[in-house]
Amino acid sequence: MSIPPPPEPQGPPTQGPESPQDQPPAQAPSPQASTPYNPYAPPSQDPYAPPAQDPYAPPAQDPYIPYGVQPQPPYGTPPQTPYAPYPQGPQPLPGPYGPQPYQTWAQGYTPYNNPAPLNGMSVAALVLGILCCIPGVGVVLGLISLNQIKKRGERGRSMAAAGMVLSAFGLVVWVLGATGAATGFWDDVKDSARNNASATPVKGDCFDAPSGSLEGTTYDFDVVSCDGEHDGEVFAVVRMGSGSYPGDKKVTATADDKCYALQDAYAMDGWAVPDDVDIYYVTPTSQSWSLGDREITCVFGNTDEEASLPGGSLRNDATTLDSDQLAYLKAAHVLNSALDSAPDARYVEDDLPGHKAWAGRVSTALTQQADLLESHEWAGASDKPVAALVKDLRAAQKEWAKAAKASDADEFYGYYDKGADLIDPPKSVTAREALGLATTPPSYDRNDSGGDGGGDAGGMEV
């Protein structure tokens, strides 16, 4: 390296421009040392010369080559090696039709696909469709979810469709309700239910049987007015207990006992019930019992099951009677109940103790009846006829009391005949007429009364 000469002192500037011929030839600028000159420093290397190679060092790695990529020589074609380089990345497997394009797993590199996520909009559409709380929203959410499912490959297509259908149905119902169409439809439903309910008559209803007969099996009735002819009139409804079906015999026995005991509560004046009226009952069957039927329906009908009852209701109770009529019939019911408790044995000789006990019950009932009639304040012309009836009741009570103490059947018959004559139904006709009650006593067989048997008085009504 040459050392530049020291700079010359600058003289005063020349005056005027110089011509190109007067200027000395230009020289290339010499490189300036970045550090002061050191005469003992080793000679510097040429910055443009390639670095010296260490014969024992391994080949240098290019710091800019990414990891995993085979370095390439800077010039020319790399030297060939006796072995082909190992292929980089996954390679297709050989097949009968040549190499196939490589296809990676859809979900990363895992060997099994994870299930696609469930679309949230489809769930919301189904929930709103079921609740129907906001009509039409489920349809909108269902359409949105179907679009998202198509783009994202998510699950929930069937849920979205179901939500749309349910929401659309709710929207239709809402529209019908807003326009009044649903109101008319619901009124028709209620009317139908009311008409079906009337097919089961209740206490006080009159009806016609579809077959025209009160015998056999029936499933419904046609409720009609009691003013015209009808097949039957309901006077009581008894509900049986729960549990399994008790059987036909048990149900029939229960109906027989309950209906006969309840007839006087509906038709308190037995004299007002025609002789051709009998008691029927409609009972549950084993099939209807399994459906919840537990009711026994007690019915007045014609003794001829094929015939009808005349127009007019048989009901005479607190809903149809005045206070005097009600007081008289309540007092008469006390004696009628005692008379109906006669023993099953037709003749006194067959059951003297039973007949004596029965006579005691009749004696007690006569006392109660007389007390009830005397304690009531009778209005108008009924006072004297009732007082005369009470006198006969007191006399009859004494005879029945003696019959209750009879030592044998003959003695019983003597007292029984006298007591029965004093309460003979025609003796109460005058009082009944004054009270405006029926005056024709029920027909019953009296040919066997008297000494033939004491139980015949059980059919009497006063």
What is this structure, in a nutshell?
The protein has helices spanning 120-131, 137-152, 157-179, 181-197, 248-266, 286-290, 323-339, 352-375, 383-403, 409-422, 429-435, and strands spanning 206-208, 222-224, 232-239, 277-282, 295-302.
Key descriptive features of the protein:
462 residues; alpha+beta; 6% strand; five-stranded antiparallel beta sheet; 11 helices; elongated
How would you sum up this structure, described in words?
Helices cover 38% and strands 6% of the residues. The protein is of the alpha+beta class and 462 residues long. Among the domains are: 60 residues, no CATH class; 107 residues, no CATH class; 137 residues. The protein has a 5-stranded antiparallel beta sheet with strand order 2-1-3-5-4, covered by helices on one side. The radius of gyration is 61 Å and the shape is elongated. About 14% of the residues have low confidence.
Measured between the Cα atoms of the first and last residue, the distance is 165 Å
H and E order: HHHHEEEHEHEHHHHH
**Largest sheet at a glance?**
5 strands, antiparallel
- Chain-averaged pLDDT: 76
What is the topology, as strand order, of the major beta sheet?
A: 2-1-3-5-4
Instruction: Give the helix tally.
Output: 11
Principal-axes geometry comes out as elongated
In percent, how much strand structure appears in the residues?
5-15%
The radius of gyration computed from the alpha-carbon positions, rounded to a whole number of angstroms, is 61 Å
Tell me the helix content. Answer: 25-40%
Which class of secondary structure composition applies to the elements?
alpha+beta
Counted beta strands: 5
Low-confidence segments, given as residue ranges, are 11-35, 65-69, 73-77, 92-113, 445-451
